[in-house]
Each structure stands twice: as structure tokens, then as C-alpha cells.
């Protein structure tokens, strides 16, 4: 399950793997309902009307409802003040029916993103973006309460496909706080030897070529070419780039950071875009929310039983 292959690499079916995770989660949610009379709750906050953000938020809320969790929606106008957003976060922090809080990024320019993310209770930080959770992710022997969803989804794909990590060379393309950096830290925890390349790296190609595991998260359409890939490598493509395509009704097409057609001929495993990492990000968000709820339900002082 979760893959197909005719020529070249095994194509990792992230959508199918995410669906089976959704089923596992739905079972646990119904167990919680039967035993505690409560379900996990996920609050998704969106500020403004960016089309891509609205699409992603809609997908998250739908997935949440489908597994039987409670979805709490906070929709604020693009000109909402920082104080207004903070007030909503505080209210969600105090709400016993909320176990996860996600503030969709990017926030409008006038809002200090760091200030908002710092305000989310670490017990409800299902994105894993709070500096305390990130800090623990980077430290040996420390366990964050939540691991960021996209990086966790990348690792989950490797684990479920039984792709070895320990002792392997991994190269991460990109070093953002939400993808590149945390995925590199996670691969390090799983005992890969990790390099990070970025926009000032002089020869990305030759470094990527040495990797047994490539994580592409640069936000550059089809930047990683077939001849960058070591034969047999695992290629995980995080990129979601919209490129113009006059043959499509919408006038655009979604592509990854990897030239899929070329790389598939060389790689051992590869994720498609769409249908690879994207669905796993949502599955991990639900998993984090479930974990947060289970921690809350097992606390005696949480008296909302
Ligand atoms: N599928 C999913 O669930 C998700 C997908 N994404 C997608 O992943 C991609 C990355 O997202 P995000 O991390 O937020 O992006 P950012 O723009 O925040 O970071 C991009 C990173 O890539 C590096 N970079 C940019 N150009 C190059 C280049 N030519 N060569 C090498 N490195 C380069 C940048 O380097 P520097 O630091 O020097 O600027 C930066 O570290 C995007 O396409 C995004 O849409 C993001 C989140 C979730
Ligand atoms: N606080 C916060 N947390 C995030 O996790 C977060 C965020 N902000 N801002 C934006 C990025 C992006 N992101 C994606 C999630 C799912 C898909 C996804 O499911 N994509 C589908 C395709 C969707 C389509 O067709 O457009 C796929 O790849 O198959 C993509 C991207 C989460 N992000
Ligand atoms: Mg970004």
C-alpha cells in the first residue's frame, strides 16, 4: 500500500498513507468519545483573504470534522489589529474544548508574527512553532510537546515506507523555521548525517548528489533536476509552487521543488506534488491535536469531564 512503480523510483502515495492515518485517528477519537464523553478540538485562525491560505484552511477544517474532532473557526479581516488577534488566541488558550490552535501563516504585514506565535499556549501549539517547542526539538534528549507538521509528515513517510535513516546522508534544501530547519533537526534525531543547503550555498547540486535522502523545501519550481540525484536516493518534495499553464482551465498548475519526471528515473523513492507531503501535513496536524487532547484528558485538574 501507499506506493506504485513501473519505471524507476517507487512513487510514494502520500494521499493513501494520509488516509490510513486519518482512519487510525478516527478510531482513537471515537474511543475518547466513548470513554471520556469528549472529543479533541482544533481551532484554526485565519487573518485576511489570501486565496491559498483559504484553500489550506478549508482543507484542515474539513479533515478535522471528518475524523470526528470539533473544528473551531476564527476568521478575522485582513486589517485586524495585533491586539485583536492576541485576544482571540488568549480566549482559545483558556477554552477547555480547544486542544490545538493553528494560526495560518503568513500573517498580514502589519502583524508581528513572532508575538502571535509566542502567545499560543505550548500545550496547544499543534504547529510546533512556539520557540520552546522548537528549542526542545533542536536539543539532545529533550522532547518537544509538538513536532511541526510538515517535517513530521516527511519523517512519517520515510518510516512507513521503511526507508532507512540511521547512518544515511541527508541533504535538506531550505532552512525556514517551518520546514527546512525542523526537518533537518528531526533527521539528526533519527541519526542521519545532515547537511542544510540554502540560497547562499555555492554548489547545491554536488551536495544533493551525495544524499541518500533529499528533502526539497526551497519554494523554487522544479529546481532539483534529475542529474542532482544519487541513484536509488529517497526524494521527498515539500515544494508547492503554482506555475502558469495555459492548457489548464485555472491557467495554473501545481509543481514541486523537484523535476519529478527526470528525478523519478534516477531515485529509489520519490513523492509526487500534489499527493505527497501536502496530505501528510494535514494528517500530522490531526495527530498532534489528538495527542494534545489525550494529554489534557489524562490531567486530573482538567475538570471539564
Ligand atoms: N506541502 C506542505 O505541507 C508545505 C509546503 N510548503 C512549501 O515548501 C516550500 C518551502 O516553504 P518555506 O520553507 O515556507 O519557504 P521559505 O521561502 O520560508 O524558505 C525557503 C528556503 O529555501 C532556500 N532557498 C530559496 N531559493 C533557493 C535556491 N535557489 N537554492 C537553495 N536554497 C534556496 C531559502 O534560503 P535562505 O534561507 O538563504 O533565504 C530558504 O531557506 C514552498 O514551496 C512552500 O509552499 C511549505 C509548508 C508546508
Ligand atoms: N500555521 C501554519 N501551519 C501550516 O502547516 C502551514 C501554514 N501555516 N501556512 C502555509 C503552509 C502550507 N501548508 C500546506 C498544507 C497542505 C497542503 C496540501 O495538502 N497540498 C495538496 C494540494 C493542495 C492543492 O491542490 O492546492 C497536495 O500537496 O497534495 C499544502 C500546503 C501548510 N502550511
Ligand atoms: Mg514561508
UniProtKB/TrEMBL annotation:
GO cellular component, as recorded: cytosol
Pathway participation: One-carbon metabolism; tetrahydrofolate interconversion
Domain Tetrahydrofolate dehydrogenase/cyclohydrolase NAD(P)-binding residues, every copy: 148-296
UniProt KW keywords: Hydrolase, Multifunctional enzyme, NADP, One-carbon metabolism, Oxidoreductase, Photorespiration
Source organism superkingdom: Eukaryota
Residue intervals of the Tetrahydrofolate dehydrogenase/cyclohydrolase catalytic domain: 12-127
CDD domains documented for this protein: NAD_bind_m-THF_DH_Cyclohyd (cd01080)
Protein's job: Catalyzes the oxidation of 5,10-methylenetetrahydrofolate to 5,10-methenyltetrahydrofolate and then the hydrolysis of 5,10-methenyltetrahydrofolate to 10-formyltetrahydrofolate.
Subunit architecture: Homodimer.
Name of the protein this chain belongs to: Methenyltetrahydrofolate cyclohydrolase
Organism: Ceratopteris richardii (Triangle waterfern)
Amino acid at each position: 500500500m501507499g506506493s506504485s512503480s513501473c519505471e524507476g523510483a517507487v512513487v510514494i502515495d502520500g494521499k493513501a498513507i494520509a488516509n490510513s492515518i486519518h482512519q487510525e485517528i478516527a478510531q482513537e477519537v471515537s474511543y475518547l468519545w466513548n470513554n471520556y464523553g469528549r472529543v479533541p478540538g482544533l481551532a484554526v485562525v485565519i487573518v485576511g483573504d489570501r486565496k491559498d491560505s483559504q484553500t489550506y484552511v478549508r482543507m484542515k477544517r474539513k479533515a478535522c470534522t471528518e475524523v470526528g474532532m470539533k473544528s473551531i473557526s476564527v476568521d478575522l479581516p485582513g486589517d485586524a489589529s495585533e491586539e485583536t488577534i492576541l485576544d482571540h488566541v488568549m480566549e482559545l488558550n483558556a477554552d477547555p474544548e480547544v486542544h490545538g490552535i493553528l494560526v495560518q501563516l503568513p500573517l498580514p504585514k502589519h502583524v508581528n508574527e513572532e508575538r502571535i506565535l509566542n502567545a499560543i499556549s505550548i500545550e496547544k501549539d499543534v504547529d510546533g512553532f512556539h520557540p520552546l517547542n522548537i528549542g526542545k526539538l533542536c536539543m539532545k534528549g529533550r522532547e518537544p510537546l509538538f513536532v511541526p507538521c510538515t517535517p513530521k509528515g516527511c519523517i512519517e513517510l520515510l518510516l512507513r515506507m521503511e526507508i532507512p535513516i540511521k547512518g544515511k546522508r541527508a541533504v535538506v534544501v531550505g532552512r525556514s523555521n517551518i520546514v527546512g530547519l525542523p526537518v533537518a533537526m528531526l533527521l539528526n534525531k533519527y541519526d542521519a548525517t545532515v547537511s542544510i543547503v540554502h540560497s547562499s550555498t555555492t554548489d547545491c547540486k554536488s551536495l544533493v548528489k551525495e544524499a541518500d535522502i533529499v528533502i526539497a523545501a526551497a519554494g523554487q519550481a522544479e529546481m532539483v533536476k534529475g542529474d542532482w540525484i544519487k541513484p536509488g536516493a529517497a526524494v521527498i518534495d515539500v515544494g508547492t509552487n503554482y506555475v502558469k499553464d495555459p492548457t489548464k482551465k485555472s491557467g495554473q498548475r501545481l509543481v514541486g521543488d523537484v523535476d519529478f519526471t527526470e528525478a523519478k528515473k534516477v531515485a529509489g523513492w520519490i513523492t509526487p506534488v500534489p499527493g505527497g507531503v501536502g496530505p501528510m501535513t494535514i494528517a500530522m496536524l490531526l495527530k498532534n491535536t489528538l495527542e494534545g487532547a489525550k494529554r489534557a484528558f489524562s490531567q486530573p485538574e482538567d475538570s471539564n469531564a
